[in-house]
Amino acid sequence: MIHRIIENQILETLDHVPSITITGPRQSGKTTLVKNLLPEFSYFNLEDPELRTFALTDPKGFLKTAGQKAIFDEIQHVPDLFSYIQVEIDKTGQNGMYVLTGSNNFLLMERISQSLAGRVSIFHLLPFSIQELNPGYEVSTEEIMHRGCYPRIYDQQVNYQQWYSDYITTYIERDLRSLINIGDLSVFRQFIRLCAARTGQLINLSAMATEIAVSYQTIKRWLSVLEASYLLFVLNPFHKNLNKRVVKSSKIYFYDTGLLCYLLGIKTPEELMFHYLRGSIFESFIISEIKKSVFNLRIQAEFSFFRNLTGNEVDLIIEMPGIVKVVEIKSGKTINPQFFKGINFWYKNFGDSQSFVIYAGDETQFRSDTSVLNWRLTENIVN
To answer: Looking at the domain covering 7-124, what would its CATH class be?
Structure first.
């Protein structure tokens, strides 16, 4: 079993709060994590129709059966249970009572804000990080980007191309229907692939709407659904202390590049090596890895990018308490002076920051003003 970095944070937090919620994409390992980490807790999977009916029709009896140390998996299926959990927490005043998990961030956060505000601590669990996988064999960036990092692929040694096909089918045909009413699911499939083709690029929602013949508001709503399901995330432009000569559009990236490669129809790691979107896929891979570190260590951080109208840009800006970190992400395997162009522009215009170049090669250099890291060391950026 591969241990998760977030484990210690969960155990420490349970000593100080009545409940925790762990959210993240389907198949990111939430159930395996909590069952192995907390064997003394009773476990209830609320995707089970019988258990769900019990919880819906007799929530007080259900919580009495569960006891005061319980895991409720996929709790968004029983939204009314949150209010009864609140009553139990307030009645006992104990810490470490309940662990809630769910793969729909929108539904979870809505119910938590209504019933459990101040009584729950939120964790985000993404698929394995490079640091967690720590492969003991030589693996290329193309191999790991193409395979992706979902636990089932490593635990079960499955055919990962088929697994991603099933994953998308299950997501669209089951989870999606609980979020929005879509008449033609094939159009939504087109939308997901359209997002994949625009990874790392400035997005124009109106143009996307025109391309698949739906409204602008529909595209906006669908994008928020993909975010809530942890399939992709939006990176907004850096906006503090800037004049008007900057781009205002956002970028989209996928949390898992294995899923991204599947959506793009990239069949092999070798094909990825020469794909026209390789640079954008590598950006998606690295930014997602940094997000995993932030979530696993529970660091307060805001992510953005900078680009002005004359083409100067910085791939990633991370604002943390008391410090700003700027990151250039390069898919080349040889360190090149051009790697530092964006960082040099940033220094000249916005002052000193902690800066990094992370690239697809193997060397690491610590220069006077910038750390050059190989792709295996993304955790060093936020640690």
So the answer is: alpha beta
